[in-house]
Amino acid sequence: METGKSAKDRIRELTESVTGLPTLPKVVTQITQLLQNPRTSAEEVGRAITMDQSLASKVLKLVNSAFYGFPGRINTITHAIVILGFNTVKNIVLTASIFEKLGGRGGSQSFDLEKFWLHSIGTGVVGREIARKINFRFQEEVFISGLLHDIGKVIAFKYLPEEFAQVCQYRDEKNCLLMEAEKKVMDVTHDEVGGWLGTKWNLPEDLRFSILYHHFPKQGAKHETMVSVIHLADIFTRALGVGSGGDNRIPIVDTGVWDKLRFSRPLLDKIYKDIDAELEKASIFFQIM
Q1: Within a domain: 1
Q2: Is 2 domain-assigned?
Q3: What single-letter DSSP state applies at residue 218?
Q4: Helix or strand (DSSP H, E) at 115
């Protein structure tokens, strides 16, 4: 490995290099461009998605799952768009594409990829439940943001394995949060890496902000509500013991989040009561991807 450069410099170079990281399929860009035109039809978007048969197959499996409530009833991508809407299908395509590039099981003893993705799915599910309870209308965007909020950890694990192994070792020795170990060992944190990747991939701004600021929701600016939901969902998911994002400790909820979301204890109890069934439905993501 090249010497003379810090991990932070190398991660910057990695995320800024066209060949350094996997790119999203062209269909994601095509769909984004199509949806900028209000006259775009469901048939046009459907044709764009079906150009990638593997991706189209995954999208159909997901939309026909219990998670979306239409098991076995949607036969074509166009039908999926009519039933679920442009935005939901676009987010499913984005998620399927990212899972194809960076998903998978395996990992190491100190960072288990299967547990990582279970935590990510759990954060999406809990986030969506929080959004429902507070009547935040961007519930699908919250789910996708939860799925991808820690994507920077996967980048560090896959592309800087030596440094990330040192991060995990420091975490264990000091009994600290992974983020604190990242800062100490690499001088860069997973939220920063994820933010750079989100910019590279031209992800929607609300998604990029959720990735970049989910540990510091007050910095979420105009997307503070979305970021606050992800912040809370991440911590709730840790407390529930769903998978593992790589931490042995549970961070403290930012006190401003409770007021921002007007969240109460009865709502929290309601989420704990409802979450098991929703997590079971969401497990289809891991099975299909």
Answers
A1: no
A2: no
A3: G
A4: helix 113-133
Residue 116 lies in a domain: yes
Q: Report d(CA 285, CA 125) in Å as an integer.
A: 11
∠ CA(191), CA(233), CA(66), 5° rounding? Answer: 115
Report the domain count for the chain.
1
CA distance 268 to 113: 28
Domain of 19, in residue numbers: 7-288
pLDDT of residue 1: 46
Identify how many contiguous H helices and E strands the chain contains and give both numbers: 16, 0
Q: What is the CATH number of the domain that holds 97?
A: 1.10.3210.10
Asked if the structure places residue 20 within a domain, the reply is yes
Name residue 107's beta-bridge partners: 112
The tokens describing 231, both together, are 């912040």
Per residue in 168-186, pLDDT tens? Answer: 999 999 999 999 999 999 8
Give me the helix-helix angle, 53-63 and 265-288, nearest 10°: 140
Q: Which two tokens stand for residue 108?
A: 């190491």
**Number of neighbouring beta carbons within 10 Å of residue 162:** 9
Range 41-57 burial, b when 16+ CB lie within 10 A, else e: ebebbbebbbebeebbe
Q: Output the CA–CA distances (angstroms, integers) from residue 222 to 3, 23, 128, 145, 184, in the order listed.
A: 40, 28, 19, 16, 30
Mark residue 85 as left, alpha or beta (left: phi above 0; alpha: psi -120 to 50; beta: remaining): left
Give the model confidence (pLDDT) of 69-84 as tens digits.
Answer: 887 789 999 999 999 8
